[in-house]
Design a protein that fits this description.
Oligomer: single chain
Number of strands: 8
Order of helices and strands: EEEEEEEE
Radius of gyration: 13 Å
Shape: globular
Largest sheet: 8 strands, antiparallel
Distance between the termini: 13 Å
CATH topology: Jelly Rolls
Low-confidence stretches: none
Number of domains: 1
Mean pLDDT: 97
Length: 108
């Protein structure tokens, strides 16, 4: 398993329309992903067993959860617990980093 990887070496996968993912590094416990999100793209409300914590490099997103909505922008971070329902509307083209615990098998 590699101890180092460059984002430039990993081609993006269009996970959903306007949502591009690069799976950077992972082990059994953690996974690091870089997302590029186009303005007006949407991530439908969903849940997964993995905990998720993220950081907004640039842009603006509106997250929708069962408990309400919140907006994050450059410099903000967010967290979703295991099985917490969440989705997003991309308000401005954005780049985010997400970390998942444990590793997401579907993102390998």
């Amino acid at each position: 398993m590699a101890n180092f990887e460059s984002k430039q070496n990993i081609p993006p996968i269009e996970a959903l329309e306007g949502i591009f993912r690069r799976t950077l590094l992972y082990n059994d416990s953690l996974m690091l992903c870089h997302f590029t999100l186009e303005e007006n793209a949407e991530v439908p409300i969903h849940s997964h067993k993995e905990h998720q914590i993220g950081y907004v490099i640039k842009g603006k997103l509106k997250f929708i959860t069962e408990n309400g909505e919140f907006i994050v922008k450059e410099g903000d971070s967010y967290v979703f617990d295991s099985n917490e329902k969440h989705g997003a509307i991309i308000l401005e083209t954005a780049e985010v980093i997400d970390v998942f615990n444990p590793c997401r098998e579907d993102y390998k």
